[in-house]
Amino acid sequence: MVQTLQNFINGEFVPATGTDSLDIVNPTNGDVVAKAPISSQADVDAAMSAAATAFKTWKHATPGQRQSVLLKLADAIEARSDEIVQAQHRNTGQVKAMIASEEVAAGADQLRFFAGAARLLEGRSAGEYMENFTSYVRREPVGVIAQVTPWNYPFLMMIWKIGPALAAGNTVVLKPSDTTPESTLVFADIAKDIVPAGVLNFVLGNGGTGAAMVDHKTPAMVSITGSVRAGIAVATGAAKGLKRAHLELGGKAPAVVFADADLGKTAQSIAEFSFFNAGQDCTAITRVLVEESAHEEFVAALSTATKGLETGHDDDSLNYFGPLNNINHFNAVSEVVANIPDYATVVTGGKRAGEKGFFFEATVVDGVKQSDDIVQQETFGPVITVQTFKTEEEAVEMANDVDFALASSVWTSNHGVAMRVSRDLDFGAVWINTHIMLTAEMPHGGFKQSGYGKDLSMYGVEDYTRIKHVMSNLDA
């Protein structure tokens, strides 16, 4: 029997009032595994009302009390890891071991960081900056936060949203992606016995539901991880109500490879970082810029490394990465590869993997030009391009010559080159001789069309706060 999913509002699972629904499809085989409601305006109203009411008390919870809640959540999700993994695998097809380590275990670790951060929020020290008047700064929660998470890392991106929001004393109404809601609902079931009613609310639906959340009068801030198109829509909607916006959007990450790098080791690493999670990662390497003198050797090594990354098997344990998320995305990635210019070459991959589901081979395309769509536009799949450069200056210019600016990396054995190029790359994150590594203590977020605001770190927590100046008359 196909389960009908429910919203989670004010500490309870409740059926949506809307009559329309969405099929939730397992991308490994195309089977419908659940039905999710398209929540109505009434559902959004109920969630916002619950969050607004809960904020009146949650904002006064002490940092220690908020920390305690987050620590209990971290322990609880670890205890129910298998259940979360199974639910998410039904919706994403991701490799189960990857979900367990990179989303559940990492999510628990990051919740513990946010739990600690709840007790470290600071403002400027009090002082008499005007004679006979003492001033101090309060760092306060913003209020109700409307949040939207993507389908590529449903569980982890939920943690990135709710962790800093709750740590700072806000309440949340969150809509998971319309294709991957189930792991979020397992978390809701975990949270119902730990988090006070109304502090966390989850509303299911489509883009229209998300728009209703953004347009609602209650939220003081909206936060989305998603496409540039979705980010622009959210920013536009937020601007109409003068709401704060927090946007983590697309990427087109370059890996700049110099001839003095260990080419074999670098090629293996780049292949693994590029095709992790089927390339459905805003920070994944999508463009390789290799020094011209090393091009032939590097491409041969990259081709060999790429061919060793398995996908499309019925046995999940045999796959390095899983399928693309849905049939529309599968068709879009297939079209990108089918439309590469005649002068470019598919070195390896380029077609469906396996006999069912939405699996696509790890694909390397060589000989592209800077102006090509496959270089400039986000593919968000297991497809990377290779270009050459002659000088350090040309490499930086090519790397920066896209509209996205989220992540990048430089590969070299020369310390000076690494320092200069990392300085000049116009991206929110730059890795040296590695890529995609994240830690809760360091900020993650981009520039340009990759959005604004930071996830993770104390910077991410501060994004969910507001600053108030309080001045007291000493003679009163």
TrEMBL record:
Keywords: Oxidoreductase. One of its GO terms (molecular function) is oxidoreductase activity, acting on the aldehyde or oxo group of donors, NAD or NADP as acceptor. Gene3D superfamilies: Aldehyde Dehydrogenase, Chain A, domain 1, Aldehyde Dehydrogenase, Chain A, domain 2. The keyword Transport does not apply. The active site is at 248. Residues 14-470 form the Aldehyde dehydrogenase domain. CDD domains: ALDH_ABALDH-YdcW. Belongs to the aldehyde dehydrogenase family. This is Phenylacetaldehyde dehydrogenase. It comes from Arthrobacter alpinus.
